[in-house]
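Hi V.,

Quick status before I head out on leave. The structure for the redesign project is tokenized and pasted below; the design run finished overnight.
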């Protein structure tokens, strides 16, 4: 069963993630810095339990696709406050997967617990989800990543692990300003936006794998600072308008006024 949730504005989701970070910082008497201590926030502040397991075996769900990679990355039990991450994402076994593990943890303990648990509790039609403690309230599968409940949890995780304020601070420290960079396809490089440049008609952008690789290489130093995957960081930089796939037309026009 898919958890049905209402529309939530992106700004509201990001505000709640910022509020959680502020609450944690105040409780610990410390400033918020990268990388965000997500395990401490989940376990010590939110009082949730984290463990690893083979979720396909535990839930009796066959692996998706070719069966060579887990389709279920995480699950959460609202009634018991338990988060189970699939053992394929255990960073002690696969250090290279740490960013993906941290994002999944923030997705479960931030997105689903903070956003969706109150909604389920308030919705009597879904109240039965709490009655069966053997089954998780939410199962997060890659095959269902485009559903609203998962997109909301993804945005929450992104805002929690890569806070807008800290990302912009890191950007200024690296480049000395808030100027966005844009992807120049002809030489696969990311360069500053030249707001004095004459804006030419830009062909519709088709996504090529080489484009994605170039953008993720550019995002990698930020990803390493925040301990997230280059893919997650590339998406966050694009959402914040710092990394662009074309010269921002409106920004350029405003720059000339």
């Amino acid at each position: 069963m898919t958890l049905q949730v209402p529309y939530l504005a992106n700004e509201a989701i990001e505000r709640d993630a910022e509020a959680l970070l502020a609450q944690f910082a105040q409780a610990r008497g410390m400033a918020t810095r990268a990388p965000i201590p997500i395990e401490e926030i989940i376990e010590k502040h939110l009082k949730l339990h984290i463990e690893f397991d083979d979720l396909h075996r535990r839930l009796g769900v066959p692996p998706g696709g070719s069966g060579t990679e887990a389709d279920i990355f995480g699950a959460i039990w609202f009634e018991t406050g338990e988060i189970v991450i699939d053992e394929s994402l255990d960073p002690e076994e696969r250090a290279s997967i740490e960013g993906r593990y941290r994002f999944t943890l923030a997705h479960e303990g931030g997105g689903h617990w903070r956003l969706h648990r109150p909604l389920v509790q308030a919705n009597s039609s879904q109240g039965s989800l709490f009655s069966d403690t053997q089954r998780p309230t939410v199962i997060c599968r890659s095959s269902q990543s485009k559903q609203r409940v998962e997109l909301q949890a993804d945005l929450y995780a992104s805002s929690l692990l890569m806070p807008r304020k800290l990302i912009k601070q890191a950007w200024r420290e690296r480049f000395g300003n808030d100027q966005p960079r844009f992807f120049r396809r002809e030489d696969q490089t990311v360069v500053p936006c030249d707001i004095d440049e004459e804006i030419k008609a830009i062909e519709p952008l088709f996504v090529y794998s080489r484009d994605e690789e170039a953008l993720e290489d550019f995002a990698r130093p930020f990803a390493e600072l925040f301990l997230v995957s280059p893919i997650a960081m590339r998406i966050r930089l694009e959402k914040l308008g710092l990394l662009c796939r074309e010269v921002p037309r409106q920004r350029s026009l405003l720059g000339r006024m």
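Above is the designed sequence. Confidence is low (pLDDT under 50) at residues 126-131, 195-206, 250-257.

G. will cover questions while I'm gone.

Best,
W.
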